[in-house]
Amino acid sequence: MSDDNDFDLNAEEAELDAILRSMSADDLQLETPPDSVWGGIAAAAEKTLAPVIDLRSRRRQTAIRWTAAAAAIALVAGFAVVLTNGSDSTDVEVASAELLYLGDGPDFDPVGEGRSANVTLLADGEDEVVRFELSDLPSAADGNDLELWLIGVTDGEIEIIQTLGVVDDLSNPGSFDVPDDFDRSAYDVVAVDISIEPQDGVEAHSGVSIVRGNLT
Amino acid sequence: MNTTFLERPPAEPLHYDAVVNMAEMNGVPAADAAFVTGDESALRQAYDAHGSMIYTFCSRALGPERAHDVTQEVFLSAWRARQRFEPSKGNLAAWLTAIAKNRIIDSIRSEKRHSDRRAPESTEDLGREGEAETTGDRLLVADALRTLPERPRKILTLHYFEGLTHPEISVRTNLPLGTVKSDIRRGLARIRAHMENQNV
Q1: Per-residue CA distances from A22 to A12, A94, B56, B100 (Å)
Q2: What is the pTM of this model?
Q3: Do B113 and A169 count as a contact with CB atoms less than 8 A apart?
Q4: What tens digit of pLDDT does each residue of A182-206 get?
Q5: Which ipTM did the prediction report?
């Protein structure tokens, strides 16, 4: 195409002009998403969130000594489980949780603001796994990992904080085995938590989370 | 035991009709304004209006399999954060595209971390992220083109996609050359406005 513009383009117009000149007719064609895309969005947008633990903690405290600051009622939009293909047909969904940023406190890192994840607890009669269904977790800064935890609370006291492992694949975290000795029925509330953990060899929860939600 | 119950009451809902009326008076698309209010049909409207563009963006950057999940994440993230969206600072298409860019880059980096955590970030990785940015810009420009009135849309299409010069467009459309130039300039301004996003 000849450069036949006889009016001067300002910087913004020139930038846009360059984008347009780089485009082809293919850029005007849109793909139609499968119906299941909207199906997942609609299902997720309907569920109301259950009470969520507000965990106040300080780094390096051991799990059993932490004091739960109790349950916070978060009346915000929740998300339903979107069961995806690939699950074992013998798995039964026994609980689910929407993990949300509950920020504005020392125990939540702002990097989690606006982020979330949906998990389900699946059981096959013997073993249980926590599986991510939807996730938009942020990347941890260099030298840090995101780690998945189960937190058992009774009478407002945290009785156990159990790690399930490091979340490696942020866009598709997959499933995490629940330890055999973790008995959900022993606690009033079981929360799922994702924390930021420095790669410093310390096994205790750092006390800094990005998202959290109760299994219901 | 230090037990505190914290309650998070829902944000005061804005009345749908009032917001739509205010928005229309201020030149803001009604669907964009409705999205902020959390009206139950607004998410569907937003998806109908922009779902194909966001899915296409994700598909071209990540492939169709990952596009499925990332598209869902984009709309759910936007829905959760809708109280922060201000239509006066940019339209919904531009905001969703910005969210999609972030999610796509996260996905590319996650894929990289998963494949080889020890390898340094390569120029290829940076190239994929840059290409994703460019793809998003192009799709947003194309989206803006679709919103233009028929005449400037046709003139811009003839100029940029069929390679006609201004005089050639004048002949083809039987419009004065000055009208052609004016429509191109105004069309560029409207596309630029469509792409602006000061929402974060």
Answers
A1: 16, 52, 18, 21
A2: 0.55
A3: yes
A4: 888 888 888 899 999 888 877 788 8
A5: 0.76
